[in-house]
Write a structure and sequence with these properties.
Layout (H helix, E strand, L loop, with lengths): L7 E2 L8 E3 L2 E8 L5 E7 L2 E6 L2 H12 L1
Antiparallel strand pairs: 1-2, 2-3, 3-4, 4-5
């Protein structure tokens, strides 16, 4: 599936380099085989996690629906 909206690149913000529908997205610690876990935060609370940025955006779309 594809995300319904476009993600925005936040230039100069090292902690949250991406934004999607009001959620701040950051890459977490590297896991096994250098796989990155992406986390979406809203008001300091972790809302969703996913192994890829596209899957995280799709998961956020499902939360909003």
């Amino acid at each position: 599936m594809k995300p319904l909206h476009r993600k925005t690149r936040r230039s100069g913000d090292l902690q949250y380099p991406w934004e999607y529908r009001g959620y701040m997205i950051r890459s977490g610690s590297r896991g096994m085989y250098n796989m990155v876990i992406w986390t979406a935060d809203k008001d300091g609370q972790a809302i969703a996690t996913a192994p890829s940025l596209t899957r995280l955006c799709v998961a956020l779309d499902k939360l909003e629906a």
